[in-house]
Request: fold
Amino acid sequence: MKLHGSKELKVARGGAISMIFQEPMASFAPAITIGAQMVEQLLIHTNYNKAKAKKYSIEMLDRVGISDADKRFDQFAFELSGGMRQRAMIAMALSTKPKLLIADEPTTALDVTIQLQVIDLMKDLVKEFGMGILFITHDLGVIAQTADNIAVMYLGKLIEKGSVRDVLRNPSHPYTQGLIDALPRLDNLDVPLKAIEGDIPSPLERPSGCVFHTRCPADLGDVCHNQIPQFSAVNAAHETACHLLTKEAAS
Ligand code: SF4
Reply:
């Protein structure tokens, strides 16, 4: 979608595209009630009048599982628990029926049981509202639970993409392999945690060639240090940007 000018951007932001953030406490304005913020958004993005916007906002709060929705409507973000705030954020994001919901670490600040509830809720609502969802997360468990496709990034660069099943079961980029190896194992508590060696370089001093070469256990030397790897197909639904693949294909 190509947008021209601030008017079209305003219609898209919060209308066609909505976003929920990691810490809803920082996303709601602290001195304005949850309800007033929901109504304001609806007045901008729909043709609802104030009364209809209020009624619909309360319905949405109820729809995401917030009890006493009419009471919560008049409360401030600090008066709600973390899980409830995140639900209110989801209600607000979905109230304009967006085509795309961008969810940036939406469950990271929540405890594990609430995380599961929020993920289930989002999956249900995605189906009901027929929208796409872009999850930004470090949590591979959340990805496995929610996504169809995955794109792995390192230092702002896409390095592997494909179906969740392909990428998580058969990771072919050394960084993705490192991420999966670093997951704690609940089936064998004696296995030591395996970290990816080294530190993430500053984005202002990005390594030349492959951005992962300063930490890569499979570093091939000159080619990795000087040439940016291009995507190659692992299979029809899975691609990786790594010189190992081109080397394998050439041998
Ligand atoms: S391109 Fe080279 S340095 Fe980068 S991930 Fe592949 S093997 Fe490692």
User: Anything to note?
Assistant: The chain has two domains: 11-146, 152-250.
